[in-house]
Amino acid sequence: MITVEDKLDIFRKVVYKEEENKFQIALDELKKENESLLEQKKKELEAQRDEIIKRKLAMAEREINEKISEEKTKVKEQVLKMREEILQDFIQSLYLKASAFTKTSEYGQYLFDKVDKAILEFGDMYFTIYVRESDKEIVKKHLEDTYSNRFDKFNIETMPSNLIGGFLIEDKEKTFLVDYSLKTLIDDNEYEIGNKLFSLLEGAGDINE
């Protein structure tokens, strides 16, 4: 015969079993949920890691490009400095050649031709012509011989010695002063001289951009 205690014991077992099943189901669901959360978090962390890696790589690439750009700028500056030094050395050598030219027999005729051309260009005016001290006598004689009928319109003065050779011409009213000196001729053509010089050097392989 089943007693009340037995019935209570059976009831407790049934209830406990049911609760145990519910607990197990809830535990399984919780484990699944945790696993899903863990997987999602793992993916998020991997995505963050990939993003961090991308950012670091992009930053490293920028730094490398900046360093390359800086080095290119330094090299370009060095090349430009070297080109300027070469050009100025060459200009100095042209000054020396021009100075040597003034000591040749051809220089006198060169000077007369340039003076005549300037006088023809500016017309029948009163002029002051500036030449080297050593050229004053030959220029004076040339003007006397060539322009005897208007020689009184010419005044001959000494020009600065650093102009090497050639002449300056100025009107009586001092409204203009034109520089035909050898130094100015070289200086005014420095850009073209440089282009020609470096074109020749680069063609010979002696200098590169």
TrEMBL record:
Pfam families: vATP-synt_E (PF01991). Gene3D superfamilies: ATP synthase, E subunit, C-terminal. This is ATPase. GO terms for cellular component: proton-transporting two-sector ATPase complex, catalytic domain. Belongs to the V-ATPase E subunit family. Keywords: Coiled coil, Ion transport, Transport. One of its GO terms (molecular function) is proton-transporting ATPase activity, rotational mechanism. Residues 13-85 form a coiled coil.
